[in-house]
Specification:
The chain has 514 residues and is an alpha+beta fold. It contains 18 helices and 23 strands. Strand 17 and strand 18 form a beta hairpin. The two termini are 38 Å apart. Homodimer.
Length: 514
């Protein structure tokens, strides 16, 4: 676990050193849980958004996109339940004066028990080798059985308390499990209470009577209130989807783990409208489709898993998360929810406008049911970097840090490097750069030795380096170096476009979704 924590610290440092992510307002000592994306971070983020957007709108005839405003009429949030029910259960430690989410404290405690079980299994696997039967060991080993029974008992109490919104029981679990404050090390806890996560502000001048409005805590409601606008103008037939990428804001008290949980973040959401009664079949289809989208990135199928929700939201009849194995454990990167017809029904009720769909095949009108897929862009970004970050020891003892990003997502697709800055090599390199830059994001680098330049490109995940040398001036060929293998190949300049485009185009990723 310590090694993983060290890896996470290295990853955070790497993000800052190489222009991926900076603390926001850093010259003023930063702003807690708010970050800025640097020159390479914004390119990677944009590539991720394009992969999602095209995967939704380009590959599906019945999914279209919108871009709704961040500010919405305040009644939207009353109708959606956010004003009354968008809360976190918080608990304070009286000694450290720090505030924590009660559910997160308990989840972390459960994770520690899981780690104990995993360590027992790992020790046994080493001891018994190929003859090891993990399932048998888990079911018969007394230490594992004891830990598992303890975990199951806590988990059952926790799930029941969350579903019943029983704040006193959440506190009692923390007391019974002897969970301590990470800072003070004491168990001097206050009662658990609810805290609303929405940021509020005012619109209009106070002289005219300002209206209280909210920064949206999710992007989904912008889709729901535009359901009829899109359906009618797009002549959409159910089933169909509406996709959106946009910023959302939550006043997270427990904001932590770098960009994993922030107060200002970005979401990619798609709401898919279906006939009542067909929602669970569509839920299953989208669940598998979304997992395929993630695994298509090639970071390792075993890094992903589904996690069904313990507590369903008030609007849902099915919900699961796609979790990725971050350096700090399996964590949610995407949620798939069957939201029933709650949102459209609520907006119909609060607005007084009829929000229904006339189904010509059935000859009847109804309020559609909704399947939601929702990704946190920042969490996805972190999972991609965590999966790509690699430290390698090379022949001769030299080491390198390389981001093994999928080529289609890499911020810089290729670097053009003149071997030296004389004898026309630099000018030839510039000529190649200008030839390729209309199709690929390129970088020119002539500073330091060629080895150091390779290392710099490895560190930002550039898939290909093109080296211009003296042979180039004679036969119009260059050396192309491949990031992951470090192998080099001599190719003709006029073949560069063909070789690179075949491997870095978004199409190469999208074709994997067929």
């Amino acid at each position: 676990m310590a090694r993983q924590e060290d890896l996470f610290k290295k990853l955070i440092a790497h993000c800052k050193e190489y222009g991926f992510v900076f603390p926001s307002s850093e010259i003023y000592d930063g702003l807690s849980a708010v970050y800025d994306y640097g020159q390479y971070g914004v390119e990677l983020k944009n590539n991720l958004k394009r992969y999602w957007w095209d995967g939704m709108t380009l590959l599906h005839d019945n999914i279209v996109g919108i871009d709704a405003a961040i500010f919405m009429h305040p009644t939207v949030w009353k109708a959606s339940g956010h004003v009354d029910a968008f809360n976190d259960p918080l608990i304070d430690n009286r000694d450290s004066k720090k505030r924590y989410r009660a559910d997160v404290l308990i989840e972390d405690h459960l994770a520690k028990i899981d780690e104990k079980i995993s360590r027992e299994v790992e020790k046994a696997a080493k001891k018994f080798g190929d003859s090891f039967d993990e399932a048998m060991f888990r079911s018969t080993n007394p230490r594992v059985a004891k830990h598992q029974a303890e975990r199951d008992a806590i988990h059952e109490r926790f799930a029941n308390a969350m579903n019943a919104n029983d704040l006193a029981e959440l506190r009692q679990i923390i007391i019974d499990c002897e969970i301590v404050c990470p800072l003070s090390g004491t168990r001097n806890w206050t009662d658990v209470r609810q805290f609303n996560l929405m940021f509020a502000t005012e619109m209009g001048s106070t002289a005219d009577g300002a209206m209280k409005v909210y920064l949206r805590p999710e992007t989904a409601q912008g889709i729901f209130v535009n359901f009829l606008n899109v359906q009618k103008t797009g002549r959409m037939k159910i089933p169909f989807g509406i996709a959106q990428i946009g910023k959302a804001f939550r006043n997270e008290i427990v904001a932590r783990q770098f960009i994993f949980r922030m107060r200002e973040f970005e979401q990619m959401e798609m709401q898919f409208f279906v006939r009542p009664g067909e929602e669970l079949a569509w839920f299953a289809r989208w669940k598998e489709a979304r997992m395929r989208w993630h695994r298509n990135l090639g970071l390792g199928d075993e890094k992903y898993r589904f996690h069904d929700h313990e507590k369903l939201a008030h609007y849902a009849n099915a919900a699961t998360d796609i979790e990725y194995e971050m350096p700090f454990g399996f964590k949610e990167v995407e949620g798939i929810h069957s939201r029933t017809n709650f949102d459209l029904s609520q907006h119909e009720k609060f607005s007084g406008k009829k929000i229904q769909y006339f189904d010509a095949e059935l000859g009847t009108s109804y309020t559609p049911y909704v399947i939601e897929t929702s990704i946190g862009v920042d969490r996805l970004f972190l999972s991609i970097l965590a999966g790509a970050y690699t430290e390698e020891t090379l022949d001769g003892g030299e080491s390198r840090v390389v981001l093994k990003l999928p080529p289609a997502l890499a911020p810089i697709k290729l670097a053009v490097l003149p071997l030296v800055r004389k004898d026309g090599l630099a000018e030839k390199a510039e000529e190649i750069l200008h030839m390729l830059r209309f199709d690929f994001r390129c970088q020119y680098d002539e500073k330091d030795s060629i080895g150091k330049r390779y290392r710099r490109q490895d560190a930002i995940g550039t898939p290909y380096c093109i080296t211009v040398d003296y042979d180039t001036m004679r036969d119009n060929t260059v050396t192309i170096r491949f990031r992951d293998t470090m192998e080099q190949e001599r190719v003709s300049i006029d073949r560069l476009h063909e070789i690179i485009s075949d491997r870095v185009s978004l199409r190469s990723l999208l074709e994997g979704l067929k």
